[in-house]
Structures are given as C-alpha cells and as structure tokens.
Amino acid sequence: MIGPKNGERSLYNKFKLAILNLSDKIEVKPLKLYIAFKKEKANVCDIIVLKKGLKIFINKEKGTLDDSKKMMRDISKTGHWGNGDYEISVNDDSNLEYIMSLIKQAL
Prior knowledge:
Layout: H1 6-20, E1 26-30, E2 35-39, E3 42-50, E4 53-58, E5 73-74, E6 86-90, H2 96-104
Antiparallel strand pairs: 1-2, 2-3, 3-4, 4-6, 5-6
Helix pairs in contact: 1-2
C-alpha cells in the first residue's frame, strides 16, 4: 500500500477487519498489484487501494453471486488484476454490511 491517504487506509482497515471476522481461517496476503484475502489457499476476495477509495473483487463466477441491489460490476469479459468475475468501487463504508454479505458468499 504505497501512498494511500489516511482516509483510504482507514476505509481499507474497516473492510479488512470485517473480512477477517467472517472466518478465523482467512489470511491476508499482500501481492504486487492487490491484497488477497485467502481461505484454504483459495482467494475469497481481493482489494486494490486507490487514491480515492478501494476496488474490491469477489472471487465468484458470473451468475453465481446473489446481488439483489445490483451493485457489483460484471468483469467476466474484462482484463483485471483481482480474481473473480465481480468488482465494486468503494469510496466510503455506507454499504459495508451489504458488501460483506456478498463477500461472505465467496466463502
């Protein structure tokens, strides 16, 4: 995480804690381009810390995520750094609970 401002670092830490609270088997693995959250060697989700917010990728195949609010973007046919077919850009924690319900589906 080179250079994120305090706001982005704080936002990342909120999501990080919420993800780690989903299971005691989740581990954080910082990689060159993103931060992976893994459970038993499989990525659950990945986070990229941006200058203005976060990009979160959920490791689910297209059509397998129950996203009733249609907040996630389908990136199944797009090149991207994270794993999975779903992406969301986050600038605040107003939808933290809902996004966590989506991430929980990847466990």
